[in-house]
Each structure stands twice: as C-alpha cells, then as structure tokens.
Tryptophan-specific transport protein
Amino acid sequence: MATLTTTATRPSLFGGVVIIGGTIIGAGMFSLPVVMSGAWFFWSLAALVFTWFCMLHSGLMILEANLNYRIGSSFDTITKDLLGKGWNLVNGVSIAFVLYILTYAYISASGSILHHTFSELSLKVPARAAGFGFALLVAFIVWMSTKAVSRMTAIVLGAKVITFFLTFGSLLGHVEPTTLFNVAEKNASYAPYLLMTLPFCLASFGYHGNVPSLMKYYGKDPRTIIRCLTYGTLLALGLYVVWLLVTMGNIPRPQFIDIAPEGRQH
C-alpha cells in the first residue's frame, strides 16, 4: 500500500518582512523632513540610525522574552509573569490606548480618502460608511489568516514604494550638494535640535506589537523572526533616508520655516 506523505509549507521570509515594513512605513514619514529640518540631514541621519538600532534591539528583547512562553502568548501573559499585575495593568492600558489611536486614525483617514475617490466617480458614499466598510474588509482579512495579512501588506507596501518613487524619484537627480550640506548658512547650529527629533524617530519605528504574531506565524524559529525584524526595519530606514535626501537636497533649510505653518493649516 502506498504511503502518502505531506510536508507542511513553511511561511516565507518575505511575508514577515513586509508585515514589519508595512507596519512601520506610513503617511507620517512625509512630515519627517519638517520635523528634522532643524537638525538637518546628517544629524537627522544619525538620529534615525541610532533610533533604528535601539528599536530593533528592543524588539529582539521582546522576542527573547516571548520565546520562553507558549506560542500565542502576548504582552498580557509576559508582563503579568515578569512584572506583576500592577505593571501589567499599566502596560495593557498603554497598548490599548496606542492601538485605539492608530485604529481611529487609519479608519478616519481611509474613510476620507475613499469618500473623495467615490466622489470623483460621481458616487455618493458618506465618509463614515466608507471608513466602516474599509475597517470590516481589513478585519475580515485579519480573521482569515496571517498569510492573508502578509499578502495584503505586500500589495499595499509595494504600491506605496512604487508610488513614492514614481512621484519623487525624479528629484533624486536634482539633489544639490550645496543645499544638502547647507552651505548658504554660515555658523548654523544643528545639534540643539537633535533631541527634539528623537521622540518622532521612536514613533517612526514602531512595530513591536507584531513580534508575538510573528512567533505564532513562524513558530519558535528565532532565526527567521530576527531576519524579519532586521530586514523590515532596514527597509523602513532606507526609505526614510531616501526621503530626507530628496527633500533636504532640493529645498533649502530656511524654507522649511514657511513649510511647517502651511502643513498645520491643512
């Protein structure tokens, strides 16, 4: 009698990388040049690299702790066991607050974008209804499987990167070294602005809520998960650096003083 053997397909490394990269990269990156205009390019680059290093290793620490618990355990289980019920309550409220704000922001923004898109097609769809429908669609994909999430994230992240380079890629050829090095400003100070950029940099590398999910996706395979975290965060870092290079290499530093108020008005 023939014996049938089946081999389970291991999740691809690419799926985990795009989940991390897609979580990190968002519309907030477009405000990076304005926030970092005081520190300018090289100090901002140093701040980004330093923050990337710290945030990557904090994620690796979460992974190390997570590996000591059963697959599926998340922050509630880990924090309660390691720090006690008091700190677990603080941690739970903090995570719930952050995730609520992010969820609200994405649903609100997607509703507005879809409402505008439907209006261009002469379809009257209220922004609230569009946002609610978008939330249901994403929830359904999350409910299906992590693999479905990774595929959707790959499509969305790919569209983001392609659109970014189609829109701003031509500016790379117009980067002026004199503008990038801020030659026009004599005795300009940059270091005093560096500390102000760090909180924004920290928010630009937030992915840690996905670490327990990746362990559930890959199992207790730290080597693969470490590669996902490393490549995903490097993808975000690379895109941030290109964005700073494009903007700060084309727009003189003093002009950002006028750009910031215009952004607040919109």
Notes: The first helix runs from residue 13 to 24. Residues 1-7 have pLDDT under 50 and may be disordered.
